[in-house]
Specification:
The structure is a homodimer of 339-residue chains.
Chain A lengths: L1 E6 L8 H13 L3 E7 L1 H8 L9 E5 L10 H7 L4 H11 L3 E6 L3 H12 L9 E3 L1 E3 L5 E5 L9 H19 L5 E5 L10 H11 L5 E6 L11 E3 L2 H26 L3 H9 L1 H11 L7 E4 L4 E4 L6 H16 L2 H9 L8
Parallel strand pairs in A: 1-2, 1-4, 2-3, 4-12, 7-10, 8-9, 8-10
Antiparallel strand pairs in A: 5-11, 6-7, 11-12
Helix pairs in contact in A: 1-11, 3-5, 4-5, 6-7, 6-12
């Protein structure tokens, strides 16, 4: 039995989305056991009339909610009875719980996980790794995408190792092609951080390093892992999502501007729905935090039930694949790291 | 008469694109005089049979070409007879020449311009400012987008001032809304560079600073100038272009996959053409280098004639608006800057 906590408050569609997502995940995975954190009365009400295996679903009462505007350090320190912090603390204290999923405040989740959970032995800094779909139908993971705005080459090498293991173990990518986000393809491009990281990645047998990537090639399908500092990685991911969303919105507005376009769009309805689904980040699960001692998956704040379900599946597959142990043993190969 | 140099070699469609672009620009602007640099024989051959006012078009013989893979410092030092370096040197030496346009190597152009042209008095570092179209039909300038991968808050403040003046003087934007690229909207987000820059921009009356911008909002139309270090600014611009291009490509492939989609697309042909034009960066001119003593416009390497024409128009409008003088007098208001 794999036990996973689901933080049911803090996202835009709470508690409906986490509760329905949890029920759907339970149905698909008979060896999954979920613990929902949040206000007991509200959760009970939400579960009313729904069908699920009650022997594999528990409610953990945690009446407080962390808002998106709250200062992460304050939230971690003062809101121990919040649905998120309660989950983090239980995850730390209970050996039989494998991981947690949350759609709440990213800052509070990262801070809480780092402070309370600790890291996989050898890992200097945990990092976020969201997944995007590429144009050839494959997936690309971007690590880090925001947990660390300031990094060293040693950090970036660890991000490369962790994200490679994640893509191969959880998504079945064989020898993932890893690239370093840079302003040009040549080895000497970028600042000192990029130049040194380039050399370090070349000397890292655990990583199938294929060189620098310019950001316009992210969706090309040529890469499975992009290594980046948390600042530019965040820009990379959010710009991609933002551009796709804005363009779809523009297409929609333009279609409605003329009857003949509406007619054309009617013929293409199925295709447009597929495009929309393709670009919908909710279909690709959440952003996993790699390097913490236990599994942490962060879903978008706007996650609906199916997105939460995918986050739970991710946590489940991460645990099932023994990812943490594999990261630990691979990192141990590189003893001489600097912090 | 406004004199502008056009580097006719180094881009993908050379010399056809620069030569045709130059002729088109001459036709539209009777007080424009162009000097084309490059191999005299090749340029003469390209001009053969074309109609243009030969009293306003000169050829400057420069037989060498700088390749995209050449090391910028070597190119600047060793290729003085290249079409690009010849243009830079003439621009420096001739008081009556206002600016230059090139579609050649970005690295060589930046290095050459910084080494040979010098800066507007008071400017610490020149910076690139490309323009992107937003979803509400306005434009947004991103400064810096790659000339400086390492910067200080003082640099970023100057980028904000220069880009604001550029957007208001060349594109007629009234009191441009300036935002700082960051990983979140709140003032305390990001690293020390971002936090200090935020404070500095708040204390800068020359700039209509509206706060941090998350990269997913770039195309929203809410901002006219985005201030960024050259690394993340480069990621911002190239990710936007890359995502738009990849999505258009995907749409096209999907349309061709079924007859009914092809039929629908036929009804929407005009709309799709407009979308394509809207997303075609060639329609928005080049990336201008702000802060050099003379006007420098860098067109995409893939620029066709109309894109080169737009770059020439940009250089022309920059000179006509007296942008350099305005930058100099505005920068002088802030005496206490650190390098």
């Amino acid at each position: 039995m794999i036990k996973i906590l689901v933080d049911c408050f803090g996202g835009d569609h709470c508690p409906e989305a986490p509760v329905s997502g949890a029920i759907a995940a339970l149905e698909k995975n008979p060896d999954l056991h979920l613990l929902l954190t949040g206000d007991e009365n509200l959760l009970k009400k939400e579960l009313e009339g729904k069908h699920y295996d009650s022997s594999r679903l528990e409610i953990i009462h945690a009446p407080e909610v962390i808002g998106c505007d709250e200062k992460p350090t304050d939230a971690v320190r003062l809101k121990r009875n919040s649905s998120m912090m309660k989950a983090i603390i239980m995850l730390r204290d209970c050996d039989d719980i494998a991981g947690m999923v949350s759609t709440g405040s990213t800052g509070a989740l990262v801070t809480g996980a780092l402070v309370r959970l600790g890291r996989i032995p050898g890992i200097i800094r945990p990092a976020f790794c969201p997944i995007l779909p590429t144009m050839d139908g494959s997936l690309v993971g971007i690590c880090d995408s925001g947990a660390n705005v300031e990094v060293t080459p040693a950090h970036l090498r660890q991000f490369a190792i962790m994200a490679s293991l994640y893509m191969s173990n959880v998504y079945g990518v064989n020898s993932p092609r890893v690239a370093l986000l840079n302003v040009g393809k040549e080895a000497e491009k970028g600042d000192e951080l990029r130049q040194e990281t380039y050399k370090l990645l070349q000397e890292t047998p655990s990583v199938n390093f294929v060189g620098n990537m310019e950001s316009r090639d992210l969706l090309s399908g040529n890469y499975h892992v992009i290594v980046a500092d948390g600042f530019s990685g965040n820009v990379l991911v959010k710009t991609t999502e933002g551009t796709a969303l804005q363009l779809l919105k523009k297409l929609k507005t333009d279609i409605y501007s003329r009857t003949v376009y509406k007619l054309g769009a009617l013929l293409m309805k199925k295709m447009f729905q597929e495009e929309k689904e393709f670009m919908n980040y909710q279909n690709y699960g959440g952003s996993v935090l790699l390097g913490t001692s236990k599994v942490v998956v962060k879903g978008h704040g706007s996650s609906k039930a199916s997105a939460v379900e995918k986050c739970i599946e991710q946590a489940y597959r991460m645990q099932l694949s023994g990812l943490s142990e594999k990261i630990e043993s691979e990192i141990a190969r590189y003893e001489h790291y600097e912090d």
